[in-house]
User: Which sequence fits this backbone?
């Protein structure tokens, strides 16, 4: 079995993948000191990750703000054959580390909502339930790690 791991440093490639992906995994510690992970849609904007909650979300009520958070996306990639190696799997992983904060600036809230609608709503003429956008949380990016791996 052979594995090739390549660090991705080109921010344009990383941002393209973050903008194209629709969901990611958030790992964090809640107020009760329990580690949890959850999958969520997100918005990548201005080098930060935004996630959304409705008013009654129990998870939101237990978030520990100003704490370290990890956000990860994984994308399966087509494997490319070479002369000496025929991989059976390939993926790209992007991991963002940062602090979680609640967004309370009205200008930022409106900008994020508009970008969210552009990303997730295909027909802007129809009605869209904005209740899922009541609470907006930012993962204020401190580090980004991107790795491409093929193997088999």
Assistant:
């Amino acid at each position: 079995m052979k594995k090739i791991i390549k660090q991705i440093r080109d921010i344009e490639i990383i941002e393209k993948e973050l903008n194209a992906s629709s969901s990611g995994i958030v790992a964090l510690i809640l107020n009760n000191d329990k580690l949890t992970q959850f999958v969520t849609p997100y918005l990548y904007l201005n080098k930060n990750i935004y996630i959304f909650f409705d008013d009654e979300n129990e998870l939101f009520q237990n978030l520990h703000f100003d704490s370290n958070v990890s956000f990860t996306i994984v994308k399966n990639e087509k494997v490319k054959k070479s002369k000496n190696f025929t991989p059976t799997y390939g993926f790209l992983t992007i991991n963002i580390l940062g602090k979680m904060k609640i967004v309370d600036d009205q200008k930022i809230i409106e900008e994020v909502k508009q970008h969210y609608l552009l990303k997730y709503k295909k027909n802007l003429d129809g009605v869209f339930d904005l209740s899922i956008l009541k609470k907006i949380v930012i993962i204020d990016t401190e580090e980004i790690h991107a790795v491409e791996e093929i193997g088999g």
Remarks:
- The helical segments are 11-20, 58-61, 106-120.
- The chain has a mean pLDDT of 90.
- The radius of gyration is 18 Å.
- DSSP finds three helices and eight strands in the chain.
